[in-house]
């Protein structure tokens, strides 16, 4: 039996496929008996903003459970592992969109702002929208316009409303988390994470990434600590472990193969590294989530 975690691709309903879709959680719950069970871990190939409008419960994101309640907004970026838990009653909607749609919709905004939007390293994926805010009004307007098939220039209207909605959320995020005032640090951290994504299988040395950025190891550490409260080495290790976890539950790959894929000399070193950072062996982690 294939136990791989499903890769969920963007498949809009009856709407013209311009890269955006809006789906109720009730509809997603009904899919349990079809292609995949939404209560089982699955990996997105697109972006997803989940807005919970009623009830409470929890949601699984990259191997952690997060509490949700009325007016909770969840940010899910492409390739993240997530799952619903329908053991409690809640309602809401998923705003699904492709990477191309994301890039075009926010192309006129500052790059550091766009980078912050869906970056799980910088912020928690959970945002609680204040009950007395006008976020709900804008969301209901977005939902109404989305369901109006006869609307003129619907794509532009939806895009404008969606950008407003996300901008509103970012305003509330500033009040609930620390506000990054130095955009140059954000840009530097973005370059660091991009380098990490492209080179993590080659090296886990923070000194290597600092040299590639033409800064000192101390400077990279300071930026990392200021932004995410982690050393640069911790950022690297957390990223490698996350990729290892995703690979372990996403395929039938063996530890030896994964060790080489992630840049380890042999499976023994990889197993020691993995257990040091997770308290589990790769095999036990795989069994837990399958």
Automatic annotation (TrEMBL):
Q: Name one Pfam family in it.
A: AraC_binding
- SMART domains per record: HTH_ARAC
Organism placement in taxonomy: Bacteria, Pseudomonadati, Bacteroidota, Flavobacteriia, Flavobacteriales
| Protein name, UniProt field | Helix-turn-helix domain-containing protein
Q: Which residues form the HTH araC/xylS-type domain?
A: 190-288
Q: Which organism is this protein's natural source?
A: Winogradskyella flava
Segments spanning the bilayer are none
Q: Could you tell me the keywords of this UniProt record? A: DNA-binding, Transcription, Transcription regulation
Entries under PANTHER family matching the protein: ARAC-FAMILY TRANSCRIPTIONAL REGULATOR, TRANSCRIPTIONAL REGULATORY PROTEIN
